[in-house]
C-alpha cells in the first residue's frame, strides 16, 4: 500500500509512454472520463442520500430538495427495512425510522414517491439485504401509479458482498445472497432496462478503515465475483455490464482520490476486456461518489463544510457521474434541514460558480497525477492477485477474512490518523448546532397502524399462496424476482417475504474475528501498566461484556475497543452486530461482568441504555455507552445511570482508564 505515495516530490518525468496516458475522455480505457464532453454536456447528478422516519416525512423532504435544485433522489432506508424486518417485529422495536425511512409494504413505497415524477427523476435505492422485496415494492408502486417499468430510471445498490465486510446489513449467507443479487440483475435487465442493477461499492470500505487504494482493490475484487456469477448464469456481459455502476468514497486525500477514480475506469475496462467484453457502453465505468463521513468532526462542526467541499472537488475532478455531499452536522446526527441545504448548496456552487464543469479531466497530463494514477493501477493489480489467491474472494467473504482485514486496517488508521483542526474550539465562540431529532415513536406507531390496516384489507389467502409459491421456487433455484413481485402485489409485507426466504436460506450470523495485536502507543503502554497494578492488587482479570445493540451494523469502533481491551489483558466477551437482545439479556443475567459496554451509531443509544440498565445490578456492574452520541443526550444518559459516555473522538486509552476507575470505585 505504501507504494502509492501520499507524499512525493515529482521531480522526474513519469513514463508517459503508456498508451492509456494519451487516450482522451470518452475513449478506451476511459481514464480521462466515460464521456468525451463530460460535464459540458451534462453536469454530474446532485443526488443527496436521505431518509427520515416515515414515508410521508421523507417524501416532503425529497420534494423540497428537488425544488431547491437537487437533480436526483437517493433513498436511505431504516435498519429494520434493510434486514427485512417489519416495523412490528420485536427485533426492530428500537430501530424503526431511526437512520432512514421505514418501508414495510408497497403502500409505504407509494407514499414515499407520491407526487414525484418517476419518469423524469432518477431514483437510487441503497438496499442490499432485503433487496428483492424492496425492489419489488418500487416496481409495483410505480406501476400502480401509472409508470411503465421500462420508463423508470435509477440504481439499486444490490452489492451484498461488501455487507459481510462492512455495514452488516446482510440477511442470508453469502452464497444464496449472491444468487439473489444476480436474480435482481437478470430480472432488471429485462424489466427495468434503464435501471442500474448494481452499485458496486467501495465507499463503505474506506469508511470502515481502508485506504483509497485498498477501497478500489476490494471493490474490483467484488465486481469480478459478480461478473463471473453472471457469466455462470449464461448472461451476456456485453449487456449486463452496461448497467453495472460503481460507488466510491471521496475522502481527504485529495490527489489520491482523483487518481483513484481515473485508475478505477481503466481497471474496470481491462477487467471486462479480459472477460471478453467488447461493447463500448459496457466498458465505460460510471460512478457515484459520496464525501466521507469519518472525515467529519463533531467538536467544530462548521469546519466540516470545508472538508466536504474539498472532497467534493476531488470527486468532480475525478469525473464522477453523481455525487452526495455530506452535511456538516453528520458527525452528530442525521442532517438537519439547514445543514442539508448547505450540503446541496456546496454542489450547486461548484457546478454553477467555479467553471469546474467546463474542463474535462483537469488533472490529465500532470506528472504528479499521472504517476499517482499509474501507481494506483499497479497497487490494485497486485492486491487483486493476493485477494484472489488461495480459495478466492468469495471464500474470504464467507470466512470473514475481508471483514478482518478491514478491521486490521482500522486499527492501524487509528494510530496513524492526524488530529482534526478545530478552528472554533472555544466554548463561547462556538455557534449553536441544532441536530435533527428523530421522532421514532411516532414513526413506529404509524407503521404499526398501517401494517395492521394492510393485513385487514388484503386477501390473506392470495398472500399465503404467493409466499408458498416463493418458498417452492427458492428450493428450485429459479430466478425468484417474479415470485417476489407477485407476493408484494398481493400486499405481502417486506418482513413476510423475507421470512419466507429465510425458511429456505436461514439468517446468517458470521464468525467474528478480532485482532489481538496491541498497537504500539505511549498511551496504551501507560494504560497497560495501570491495568497490571489493578491485577496485582485484586488478583483477577477485569470482566467486560461489550455489545453492539439493535440492528446497527457499524462496528468499526466496537471492534477496535474490544481488540484494545483484549490486548491490554481484560477478560472481554463480545456480542457482535445482530445479536438478539434476549441473548444480551441472558448473558448479563447468567454471568458476572464488572462493566457492560454498549455501542450504538444509529440513534438508539437512549432506548438501549434503558433496556440494558434494567438487566444489570448497578451496585456490581457499571454500564458505559459509546458511539454517535449528541451532546444533548448526555444528561439523559447520566440520569439513566450510565457511568461512562464515549463519542467517536474518544481515545481508546481513555475508555480503558475509565473502566478501571469504575471498577475500583465499586
Ligand atoms: C451523461 N450522459 C451523457 C453524458 N453525461 N451522454 C453523453 N455525454 C455525456 N457527457 C448520459 C448517460 O449516459 C445517461 O444515459 C444519462 O445521461 C444520465 O446520466 P448519468 O451520468 O448516468 O447519471 P445518473 O443517471 O445520475 O447515473 C449515475 C450512476 C447511477 C450511473 C452512477 O448508478 C447513480 O445514480 N448512482 C447513485 C448511487 C447512490 O446514490 N448511492 C447512494 C449510496 P443512459 O442512462 O441512457 O446511459 S449511499 C450509501 O450507501 C452510504 C451510506 C450507508 O447507508 O451506509
Ligand atoms: N440521511 C442522510 N444521510 C445519511 N447517511 C446515512 N444515513 C443517512 C440518512 N438517513 C450518510 C451520512 C453517513 C454516510 C454513511 O451516509 O453521511 O456518514
From TrEMBL:
Residues 541-666 form the B12-binding domain. Its cofactor is adenosylcob(III)alamin. PROSITE patterns: B12_BINDING. It comes from the Bacteria. Keywords: Cobalamin, Cobalt, Isomerase, Metal-binding. Pfam families: B12-binding, MM_CoA_mutase. InterPro entries: Acid_CoA_mut_C, Cbl-dep_enz_cat, Cobalamin-bd, Cobalamin-bd_sf, MeMalonylCoA_mutase_a/b_cat, MMCoA_mutase_a_cat. SUPFAM superfamilies: Cobalamin (vitamin B12)-binding domain, Cobalamin (vitamin B12)-dependent enzymes. The keyword Transcription regulation does not apply. Belongs to the methylmalonyl-CoA mutase family. PANTHER family: METHYLMALONYL-COA MUTASE, MITOCHONDRIAL (PTHR48101:SF4), METHYLMALONYL-COA MUTASE, MITOCHONDRIAL-RELATED (PTHR48101). This is Methylmalonyl-CoA mutase family protein.
